[in-house]
Each structure stands twice: as C-alpha cells, then as structure tokens.
C-alpha cells in the first residue's frame, strides 16, 4: 500500500486538548513588575479558569488564559496561557528599538531581540541563540505595542490577519495567524516570488490545500486513532524513537510517518523524529512543517507545489503533488472539487484570478 504523507481525516471528532511539556522557567520577574502584578489572584493548580482570567504565578509574573482550562501550569501549558504584562501592558512602551535576533549568538537572561516576524522577544533563560518562536522555555514575547503578551504585528505577508480570519471563521485557536507569519522565515520565497498576483495566488493555493486537509483548520491531529501505529517504518536505520504510534498525522498538512518527521525536522533544524508532538504543541512549528512540504516535496507529482504556482503550472498540479495518486486522473473528483472550491474562494478574498489548470 502506498505510503501517504498525509493522514486520513475520515473520522472527524473534536481535537483533544493539548498541553506543551516544557520545563518551568527559572528566575524572578523584576521587582517593579512583580509589585504591579500583586493585585491579581495567585494561580491555583486544579482550579478552573475561563478565557481572559489573569493570575499571579509563583515566580511573581502574571499570566492570562488564552483558552479555558482546569488550572494547568502557566509556564508549562503555553497553549492555554500567555504572559500578561503588569506594567501598563508588558514593558517596552509603544515602540521598540532592539537588535535583530541572530541564530547561534549567545543571549543572557533579559536580552531583548527583534525576531524575523517583526515581533520582540525577551530571554527568560540564557541560551545560545535558540529560535524565539520555537524555544519558548528560553524566550517570551516582549510587548512593544501596549497589548499584553503581544510580540508585535508581523508584516509583509500577502494575506492580512483579517483575510486569514475570513478564510477560516471556525478555525481552531491553535492555528494562529502569528504562528503562520512566524513560520514564513523558514521559506522566504513562499508567497514572495513573482508578481503580486502570483504571490497571492500561491498563498491562496497553500491555504486552500491546508483547509482541505484540516477541515478548515479545525483539526490539529489525525482523528482516526486506529491508524496511529501504522506510521512507523522500522526498516529506517533511525527507527521510531518516539514510539510505534507516535508519527500520526499532525498540523496543517497532516504530516505523518517517521521518515517524513525525520526529513522535515532535519530541514527545519528541529528534532521532530525524537519529539513529533512539537507539531501539535507549537503553532509555528506546525506551520513550518506545512511549508516544508509545500516548498521542498513533490510527492506523487513532478514538481513542488511552490514551483507549480510560481511557474504557472496551475493549482491542479499542487493537488497532484499533495495527493495526486489518490485524487487525480478521476480517482476522487469530489475531493479535487473541494480543493478547487476553497482555492477559488480564497483567491477571491485576496482579489486575484485563479489562473488556469485548476484540476488534475
């Protein structure tokens, strides 16, 4: 049976709650901020918190619930909690002027950098230049806009946040616009090659295929759990160090199989073979896996989806490269039509024509 990059989403069910497993941060907040945070109630493990609840953690810092939760640890469960600045919105005033982050450069605790997405981050723990978006135990968003926990407004992407929200009105909050724009740095040519029309067409094509794979950015992980043990190819020399059933479909492109996690992780500089759960715990990592496939893999097709769009081959060739052996050449015309419908809708939102060769 052909090994498919994407996992089936046949059994649709609510995605499970996700908890990011990272070590607790060390060190106390600055005295002024700790004092400003003292007016908020102390966090209590096991107590229910609704969205928007603000608590004072054991390190003196305040955190706000992004998602309702039964008292998960704010430092560990970063999908549920975000830092909340107590000094009138997180410190840093309304403007920032800090040096650009440099991969591999040493940063001491408290260092503030400007990331590639235009946002600012402060080192919670000293580190040798880890990525602020991925290594959230070492970095935290540093507010320069006056909105608590806001790392800045990314710019340059051809899809605005309002257009993104229009495309995905019922999306899971895990799939953030900020996570997508942060991931763009991994493949700077994506939606940034050719004319403005071509750039927008590529963005629409990628998001249309992603929408099809995830039910409109609703599902984070493959819903058919019975498939989970099937995605381990023990013939690979590196095996399945995370476990037989660890390499199920995750993220916007539903990445699956141990060899695909290995290849994507190697390309992105992330240990996805050893810790595939990062794809369901970190929005930027999830988006990066989708962009990895889009920009580097041809699958059953003859070109990458990126090349299909920028070289004028048409949207149909992106379908062929993603799932052509199952859907194209009459294999499943309903699925092809679903993708084409989404692409047509998204191209309309971006104000560009779809171009030709929509089918495969």
Overall mean pLDDT stands at: 81
| Poorly predicted regions | 1-34, 87-94, 145-155
Q: How many angstroms separate the termini?
A: 22 Å
Question: Helical amount among residues, as a percent range?
Answer: 25-40%
Task: Summarize the entry for a quick read.
With 360 residues, the protein is mainly alpha-helical. 29% of the residues lie in helices and 6% in strands.
Structural account:
With 360 residues, the protein is mostly helical. It has a domain of 203 residues: Lysozyme (Orthogonal Bundle). The chain contains 10 helices and 6 strands. It has a 3-stranded antiparallel beta sheet, with no helix packed on it. A 3-stranded antiparallel beta sheet has the order 4-5-6, with no helix packed on it. α9 runs antiparallel to α10.
Provide the descriptors you would attach to this structure in a database record.
Lysozyme, disordered N terminus, globular, 10 helices, mainly alpha
Helix and strand topology:
Elements: H1 31-37, E1 54-56, E2 62-65, E3 81-84, E4 112-114, E5 120-123, E6 139-142, H2 161-167, H3 177-183, H4 196-214, H5 258-268, H6 278-281, H7 283-296, H8 305-310, H9 315-327, H10 333-350
Antiparallel strand pairs: 1-2, 2-3, 4-5, 5-6
Helix pairs in contact: 3-7, 4-10, 5-7, 9-10
